[in-house]
């Protein structure tokens, strides 16, 4: 972890990934695509050129048409973020993604409800401005808000772009997750975790390595990121260095999952914390409503219930409450208060999963208060 020390950074000239540069280095190798990028000692221009080249390689070739004169942006345009993405740069910003994979054998029923529930919670409980929340769902009519691979990559960049001390960022993903064999030896269990964009069958998944490079590494001092990831195989989905092991009696300890100390997996001085739906080897599931027509993710429901039931909770109490809700098939009392009425029909669970807590640094989970 970088702690409070300032770290030189650049962008991969091939894939556009965010890279930390060791002191005195003239070049750096990308952990994702393994390309070597030259680093100039006084090279702001060189870094900018490398970043633009990376965007071309990641999102399309330079031969693509430029943005139209009206200012709108074509899907896959590498020049800038879509004009329809929020431009407000408040101190609280969120990216919420719900993918239903409609009309496929992988279809999920509760993901859009998950996004609606999280939007409501962030606005009403934590004061996130509506114009600082970016939502991507398959049902959106805006082609730049459909959660395909290109748009997901752009949206993750939007989330961290220009973040400064005091910013609170939230990344929520509800959809499919999977594991793939680790290709660079940085995983304790030998598998990378991944999220599945809408077009994953054609374009492939987004690995935890890339998620870490995109939304964890750029976090500077004073910036805080919370990720709430409701997928299968999501325990270490942000590739953070520390995983919290906690027993049913409340005993806890942090495990160091950074197998390659020379490979930066933490932030650039900020704090990243993730709650995930289950362990890396587990699967997660939807909940079902009375009517049989309304569903939401078990992890998303348990997270919201824990937050609403215990204002001012700590990370340890929050994690224990989430796990208890899932073990008890949703619990007896449901979510209290006005927000609870928004979820009143959602009550039953049908899965065996245990939410997980990971972080970029170790801390006392029963002393540190949870606050978005």
From TrEMBL:
Residues forming coiled coils: none
One term of GO molecular function: cysteine-type endopeptidase activity
Pfam families: Peptidase_C14, zf-LSD1
Record's GO cellular component terms: cytoplasm
Residue ranges of every copy of the Peptidase C14 caspase domain listed in the record: 91-359
Segments forming domain Zinc finger LSD1-type: 12-36
InterPro entries for the chain: Caspase-like_dom_sf, Metacaspase, Pept_C14_caspase, Znf_LSD1
Domain of life: Eukaryota
One GO biological process term: proteolysis
Residues spanning the signal sequence: none
Family membership noted in the UniProt record: Belongs to the peptidase C14B family.
NCBIfam families tied to this protein: LSD1 (TIGR01053)
Protein name in the entry: Uncharacterized protein
Organism of this sequence: Lolium multiflorum (Italian ryegrass)
Species lineage: Eukaryota, Viridiplantae, Streptophyta, Embryophyta, Tracheophyta
